[in-house]
Write a structure and sequence with these properties.
- The protein is an alpha/beta fold.
- It has one domain: TIM Barrel, CATH 3.20.20.
- Helix content is 37%, strand content 21%.
- The longest helix is centred in the middle third of the chain and has 21 residues.
Amino acid sequence: MSSFFSKIISPFSNKFKKKSAIVYYGENLNYSKVNMHHYIIVQPSKIDTTSKDFKDTKSNMYAYVSLCEISKDVKEYDQVKPEWIVGRNPKWNSDILDIRHEEYKEFLFREYIDPIIESGFENLFFDTLDSYQMICKTLHKRVKIEQEVANFINLVHEKYPKVKIVINRGFEIIDSVYDSIEAVLFESYYFGLGEGIQTYNRVSTADREWLDSKLNRVKSYGLPIISVDYLSESDIDEMAQEAIDMIMSKGMIPYISNKDLNIYGRTCMKAL
């Protein structure tokens, strides 16, 4: 590791070691289990934004938005135009959408971002930024889409400058969006999903070293990093603390949950 990154990582670890995060996509959010966290990522359709609990917690709550994929199960799917669809993600049974279409960007604002902010949310979590990697065959096309993803995130920040944004991965665009975002989340540093979404496995050393090369760039901008690792519910009690300790030793904020993110998992605090 270069001396430059060594200087960056040391203070980074101290700065963020006491922060915590939770990603919960289940029903009936229990505020007493989540309101102590700095990052609370939720599905906005499952949140009653008129409740006092929400209003007391919303400064730390981030509403999920999928930027480049959509499931046929969501009500907004009927408005998706065929020309926006550029592929399929068979793992999650969703369509990959091309953010280069101006109409699609308008759709994202009209159906998701604007209503979410108007409902009372103060922060956003952007997922599926790198879905294009499954269908892009040339470097030129990948670069063009990356530019559009970065431009869109910066456009959201420009429209809503007080809204904090967390992105999932986005390593390829971090140099273009670091000033528009609050933090970076990524998945599976030590424990992740197997080939099928029903299985779990340990992340290989080679994969973790590749992640480190990307994460060091994020750290160079002083951004908090949230690492979401996955374990089966039967293994969480026994193995979660191991993952938490290792992730924290890397200067990152840990969260350990199941693949559906519908339980109150573990972070750097005790079991919830």
